[in-house]
Every structure is written in structure tokens, then in C-alpha cells.
Specification:
Layout: H1 3-63, H2 68-80, E1 85-88, E2 93-96, H3 100-103, E3 110-113, H4 116-121, E4 125-126, H5 128-132
Parallel strand pairs: 2-4
Antiparallel strand pairs: 1-2, 1-3
């Protein structure tokens, strides 16, 4: 055999190895895809069970009206909770900690205030979230 024939045979052997390797990878991906699909099916079943539980809970809550005194106690307790305020080192506004703008402040730039007065004394203006509370 000539060297050209040997080179062609060697090339075909390498291609065959590559094809076999790719086929095994495709098989592995197919198995992984089947596992993922099974997990998705299980999650959908679990989601349906949870939705059924939630709707059952909501219907049971609607049957029992909340007492007036319980609602008032919840409101009074919420107003008595201490509020903490948050601002930035270089900003002009301060927020309640639960404000979406406050949650976007990076920890290294965050400044905490125990009261509204302390934040105002630093020259900061209240955000709309502070004015609503």
C-alpha cells in the first residue's frame, strides 16, 4: 500500500472514532433530557397538588370571617414595630428597609438609621415609601 492509501485509511479511522464519540455523547444527552422531562412532569404534579391545597385553604379562610378585634390587633402591632431606615453614603434619599429601592443598595454603600429624625438630621429627604408609612 502506498502512503496516500495509508493516510486515507488513517483518516477514515479517525473519522469513525469521532463519529462513535459523538454518538455516545448524543445518547448521554438523550438520557439526560429524559431525566429532565421526568423531573418537569413531577414538578407539574407537585404544583397541581400545591394549587389544590392553596385553594382549599383559601376556601376555608373565606368560611371563617376574621373578628374585628383580631384585625385591629394586627394593625396596631404593625404600627408599633420599630422601623429602620436605610440610605446610601452618597444619596439624597432615605427609605424603609422593605422598600424595593432600599433593597437594591449595595451593602458597602448602605447606611442604616434607627429613626426618621436621624436620617433627616443627616440632610436626607424621605422617599415616598417613608411618607406613606
Amino acid at each position: 500500500m502506498s502512503s496516500i492509501e495509508n493516510n486515507v485509511i488513517r483518516s477514515f479511522e479517525l473519522v469513525r472514532k469521532d463519529v462513535m464519540s459523538l454518538q455516545s455523547q448524543i445518547d448521554a444527552l438523550g438520557e439526560a433530557q429524559d431525566k429532565v422531562l421526568d423531573l418537569v412532569r413531577q414538578l407539574r404534579l407537585y404544583e397541581n397538588e400545591l394549587q389544590a391545597r392553596v385553594s382549599k385553604l383559601e376556601s376555608s379562610r373565606e368560611e371563617k370571617p376574621q373578628k374585628h378585634s383580631e384585625a385591629m390587633t394586627a394593625r396596631v402591632t404593625a404600627k408599633r414595630l420599630p422601623k429602620h431606615y436605610v440610605g446610601t453614603k452618597s444619596g439624597k434619599l432615605f427609605h424603609i428597609e422593605s422598600c424595593p429601592f432600599a433593597q437594591n443598595i449595595k451593602p458597602m454603600n448602605r447606611v442604616k438609621f434607627k429613626s426618621k429624625v436621624k436620617a433627616l438630621n443627616q440632610g436626607l429627604k424621605p422617599c415616598k415609601c417613608v411618607q406613606k408609612s
